[in-house]
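pasting for the record
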Amino acid sequence: MATAMGGNLSKYAPIFLVLALSGILFLLRNMHTLERWNCQSVSSLYQLQSSISSAFKPSGAFLLLDHNHTYCPFLGQEPSSEEAREERYLLESISWPEPPTAGTPPLRFSSDPARSFFVIQPPASGARGASGQSVWRVGGKLEVLVHMQNFLGQPKRHGGDFLLARIYSPELGAGASGRVTDHQDGLYTVELPLLWLGPAQVEVTLVHSSEVVAVLRRLREEQPDRVYFKSLFRSGFLSETTVCNLCLRTGPRQPTLCNYTDPHSGEPWYCYKPRLLDCDTRINHAKGGYKKHLLTTTESMLFLSSTIKAPIQALGMDNITISPAVRELSLIRRDRSKFMPSGYYYQGSWRPLSGIPIQQFNDSSAITQCLRGKLFYMFGDSTVRQWFEYLNAFVPELKEFNLYSPKNVGPFMAVDSVHNILLQYRCHGPPIRFSTVSASELRYVANELDGLPGGPDTVVALSVWSHFSTFPVEVYVRRLRHIRRAVARLLDRAPGTLVVIRSANPQKLDAEVCLYNSDWFSVQLDAVLRAMFRGLRGVVLLDAWDMTLAHPTQPHLLHPPPDIVKNMIDLILSHVCPAKKERKRT
């Protein structure tokens, strides 16, 4: 009987062998589907391979763990003593008032924009018209006192609220940003410049209560990986996807790290090592996703839609009429003791208050003539990519080369061979929250700048800010420091190069977006950027913050509307082709 059974099994052995080999080949041929799985799906696969004891405390390449903020900024090269001093100075310069008590207070004690109010103050000069009404004149300033109250209708006794203010006139196409001073007792003073003749309306906005700011600060320091990234690794039929970031926990229960620190700039980047493949098999970079459930129940109550970027109403009038100036506005501009923004809108056009006069480039031929013989390089995030897209669409002579780049990712290049014009855009290196980018196309801005010869026919535009909002500020300081050094080297070897650096800008917010891209994160990064490039000769700061905040009709958007982009391009081209000064007649 046994002999007969053995004979039967041996007869079917070739069939079992064929089935087994077919199964193995099927598995290998379909390993590539791993790259289409999200991080949580692959994590589940790896967790199944873990021991039972670790199933309740899983640790794997795809787990989004809480981090101790003390280790994230110090990955990569240690800062020198001079760099450490600069970093401390920058962090102190953007310090924000701490909450008076530990813990998150209930909603009823937080700032309520509906119960808060502002009051327009009389002119400091006490000027009054024939009817006894206050008179505000062009070249002066308007002061507004803001009273913050909580949901109980009680005055707040501490500061820390994040306010924005502007003065504007839709009928005149005019607008200017205001400066807010926190007296740290629930009162805020807003200074608004008076720059045009006629009607003007005041707008004060509560972006975030002080209580929300405290939550955002905690997230920035304790959850630097709340936006996470991933990379695909592939070799032959094998492919794996792992989580990547600037801040990845290491330890005996964590996967080994692949270190992709840039050898030239020293910029760090890490991925968890695949289980089966080597680190050098990485082929791309992509946004992985957003961590959820970041807030406690009490914290979540603070993020009401009615309190995010909410208007504060006036007690009394919210508008004035601006009378003619006593002095010429050109003389007032020179008085730097007065608060002045970088510029203002009038009749829909941006007018800088310092620097060269701005020109209007309203037709494509004017742009073509200005850019004749120019190499225009744009590096950074999607807010500078808008400039490439605007010029490429507006100037028909420019022909875009098909570089087979992913949409909205790049790199992109357009050429006008007749007028010898080159436009080029390339995104900055990680962290970058774009869709899939080939690993070979990940370039750091500092390295790209070091590869440019520069010169009078070269224009360089940089925008690096939005993708750093989730990280501790030290990470951003380090990136800007490397870029600043590269800019200085470029200007040293080619002093005629024009470098334009774009600031951050406010954007549309809701309860979800606030956790990752709040204007509070942006305004702090913006202050650091301005401080780090202040005084560097040959560098033009394009104040996208003021140009967005001051606009009389356009909404706040991460990617400003075409009207604002057009004014930005006009400003850049006015520096590329400054207006010729008329000779004085003798």
